[in-house]
Each structure stands twice: as structure tokens, then as C-alpha cells.
Amino acid sequence: MLDIGFLAGIDLFKHLPDSCLETLEKDSNLLDCSAGHLFFQPEQTGRVLFVLETGSVRTFRTYGGRKLTITVLKPPAIFGVMGCFGQAKYLSSAEALEASRVRMISRDSIQALLECAPHVTHKLIDLMSERCVHFLHKMETLARKGLIPRLATLLLEKAENGVVAGMTHKELGDHLGLHRESITATLGELRRAGIITIERKTIRILQPERLDRAAQE
């Protein structure tokens, strides 16, 4: 059964009456998937809205042999919105970064929800607008910055208490659309400058002020 309490905690579905949430439950399915599972690709026709309950998922675009990460989602999160409206064509790919549990709600159920609660339409538009702005900002950053500033910016974004944990050099490269070798070389420059230390899947920021200045160059 669908966890209605979980759905009610997601901003998109907050303040919905139980009858609307129960409508979603009628035509939804639960998917337990492993890391690397591909949910959809660009130009693929969509049929469902995805709700991330556990694990993590990233959306990305592929350029040549490289993947450029658009965003990394943690639960609770909604993705695949473009598959529920208009031509229902996805503009990016989405894959699980680890073992994840995802609820799939049919497009028909979403359409029924919008009739049941029209205010949800505004929330969906806001969500799509927010992610579009995020994507454009990311493209602008990539176009404007050199390698060290781009990597410095990413490290500052991912750091928690001065530590970037659980990310390989390849994963960092995927976020920036770069090869692992380029990331390794650039991290080496930052390490030799005394700004960071590097351990296995752990990067410690020793001098956040200098890293912040590097990100602004």
C-alpha cells in the first residue's frame, strides 16, 4: 500500500484531502531498484511521475561519452514531471545512484489529481520553473568558469562541515562533464596548494576561504 503519510509530507501533495491521496494510490506501483537503474532518457515518452522514497537519483544529460549531472535528488523528491504534460517527452536522463525505492504514479492519476485539486498545477509549474533556472545557472557556470573554479564551486556545494564524502573522482567528473583524469589532476593542484587533503572517497577542505576565492576566479 502507498504510504499516504509520506506523500502528505511532500510539498507538492501537502494539504490534499485524503480522497485525492487515495486516488493516487489506486494506480501507483513501487519499484525497488539497484544503483545504475535508468528510469528514462531524453525524447522518451513519459507515462508516470516518479516519487523518490529512499536512496538517491540523479538527472543528467550525455554529451559524447560524458555525463553532465543536472541535479542529485534525495528523498522525498519528485522527478520525471515533464513526462506528465504536453508531449510528455523527457528532456534529460535519470538514474539511481544507489539502491533506491521509487513510487511510480500514472499520468492518468496525476491528471485526475489536478481536477481534484487545481492548486497543484501551480506547484508543478513552480517546480518545473525552479529546475529550469537551476539547469540554466549550471550551464552558465560551466561556460563562464575554468576548471579550478568549477571544481572549487562543486566542492563547496557538496561539503558538509568541511568534508566532501562518498564521491569518487569519476562522480565529481560526471557532475562537471569532465573526465576522471582531469578531476584527479585538478584535485592534485588544490592539494599541493594546501587547500584540501585527499583520502579514499573523502576530501577535506583545510582552507575554505582560499577555496572560495578560487571558485570566484
Chart the SSEs and their pairings:
Blueprint: H1 4-8, H2 18-26, E1 28-33, E2 38-40, E3 48-54, E4 57-63, E5 66-73, E6 77-79, E7 93-96, E8 100-106, H3 107-116, H4 119-144, H5 147-158, E9 163-165, H6 169-176, H7 180-192, E10 196-199, E11 202-205, H8 208-216
Antiparallel strand pairs: 1-8, 2-7, 3-6, 3-8, 4-5, 4-7, 9-11, 10-11
Helix pairs in contact: 2-3, 5-8, 6-7
> Which shape, going by the Cα principal axes?
elongated
What does the main sheet amount to? 4 strands, antiparallel
Gap between N and C termini: 52 Å
Radius of gyration based on Cα positions: 19 Å
Strand content: 25-35%
Low-confidence stretches: none
Number of strands: 11
Task: Characterise this structure.
With 217 residues, the protein is an alpha+beta fold. Helices cover 42% and strands 26% of the residues. It contains eight helices and eleven strands. It has a four-stranded antiparallel β-sheet. A four-stranded antiparallel β-sheet has the order 2-7-4-5. Helix 5 crosses helix 8 (208-216) and helix 6 packs across helix 7 (180-192). The chain is elongated, with a radius of gyration of 19 Å.
